[in-house]
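Figure-free illustration: sequence to structure, shown twice.
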Amino acid sequence: MVKKGSVCRCCVLFGAFCRSIVEIANSETNGNGQNIEKNDGKIEFWVLLKGFGALKGKTGKGGEVLSGPKRPAGEAKQDIKAEEQANKAAKAALHGRFCMLKRRVRTSATFRRPKTLRLARKPLYMRKSIPHTPRLDEYKVLVCPLNTESSMKKIEENNTLVFRVHLRANKYQIQLALKKLYNVDVQKNRMSLWMEINTLICPNGTKKAYVKLSSDMDALDVANKIGFV
């Protein structure tokens, strides 16, 4: 218990501390130990640090008060890097994650989703002892050429060959079969760059294909090579 009218010991120590800080703030010592009066009378942060050093009894060679031990240069660089990273993180957190997103420039209204990668199977053992024969190879796609009057007229006038093909063969398979068997190229459309092959299913249930050859090939020569003319 502190008696009424008496002064606490902590208050006395605090008063002495404040007086020492004011004295250091009002005067400085140069290298020769002489006091230098300050004109502005302001207590700056570094002066306060000097006051703390003076109370702890830490002084330099010239009598100047030191604030504490010097840190190595490596730690200072690490602190600078950490500060830069912290500033970047604070800036990113301020703007949010949407500032990092970039809008894709599209030049057309149509687009396709990326194709999913499907790897080939690597079974531990074969499920079949003998693989199945090709169900639709080039020999099954092209059944036979047609040499009717209308088809011969197409050969002479339109540079077009007529074939009877498999019922389930598509135009791409027909083009590959012609390339493998007879080494002929199909004419491509200038607008769509798609091969000029027209197919139809006859009333008797067979499928017919009209194949227009490229300009550097003669349909009549190809027909003679095949042997149906």
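We now fold a second protein in the same way, so the two outputs can be compared directly.
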Amino acid sequence: MADRSLHQYRILSTLGKGAFGITYKAQDLEHDRWVAIKVLSLKQIDDWKAVELFEREAKVLSRLNHPGIPNYIDYFYVDTRKDRLFCLVQELVEGRSLANWVKQGWRAEEEQVRDIAVQVLEILDYLHWQNPPVIHRDIKPQNIILRQDGKVFLVDFGAVRDLYRNSLIKGGTFVGTLGYMPPEQFRGQAFLASDLYGLGTTLLFVLAHRSPEELPHVRMKIDFRKVVQVSESFAGWLEKMIEPALEDRYKSAREALAVLKGKRKLDRKVSHLTILPQRRQPKGSRVKVQKKLDRFDLKIPPSGVNFNNLGFFLFVAFWDLIIFGMVLIAILQQTWQILFFVGLHALVGVGLTIGSLWALASSARLTIDRERFRFCKHCLGVTYQENHGLTSELELASLEVNADEYGRKKVRCMLWEHAHNYEIGERLTPVEKRWLAEEISAFLQHLKQ
């Protein structure tokens, strides 16, 4: 690949190889600058999942802007006679990965390791407060670049997943690196605290010069105190970063950063509040969501007549008016055969009218606390659907997109309870449904943490 050109980029040398492509050092001939170009060969992948992850990486990087993340420059593909090459171009940052520093014999002092931790936590805090939050999922020594002056960069977002997508896909994808992956990622799940585990184990690698898998373990937890010599406060902080149980770790990068800097001790009430940033309700939405630490209350009011359903209601009114006129004429002219035929259409009109009124007057309410949930639908004060159960049985809220026989997309917000699922907000806009899926999933994750 050396000396080959891809668009205006001339490949110079190989920087590294990963699960989702090869990264090269290249020269941008148009802007006279050095860049890093990551190339994925379609011929060399087993399935399209790799392409999906590659495109997701490009999409996420294009909306990030942080001094600790190399700038996104370009994304394109090149077709050859026998292959298609997907290319992601980023700013080239000088420095070496922590893995290379350790390989060359570098011994870091505790203060240096603390400084690396602070810089990475600041990057993670930025990522986790995106909307939707972004989870890196592959924090490891190879993906943290340390410059000679101490500046740190986080690279390789090939395993990235935004939390919205995490809430939309039932199950997950096994992505990460053994030794640096928290237990929940083995189950295909990733949370904000999952990145903290990866950072904690990476710092242990820098201190011990040994992979986390090679360190002693006690009850599935890394027992590093006999191997690593650090202050008691830093050792305690590290222990909480690498807790196997998700609920025992720091709940956010911001909390871990505050404790590391000594700004405050662990305050569980505060940490619960900082698990996820507040999502913004779509403009014009009349849905009411009230959240507390241990309770979620959703109220969906009757839709009434609005821009989205106005056409349908006008059609029903026009249908009823035509049928009423035809029935009236048939009675006046005593044409009973026509009356029978028109009567069948009148029944359809009655059904449409009842359905329209039902849609206008129907409301819904969902309440979730730590123990139980309750989902009800009402119309004119009458409850016509009621479901309830244990909150622990709820898995997630998802956004499903299906096409009807005419190819039109239908978006549904679904709440999953193991084998059962409930549709929420049938008459809401797709944007509102997405927002609700995020809100409900975030609260369920908060309860699990």
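Summary for the second example: Residues 415 and 422 are 5 Å apart (CA to CA).
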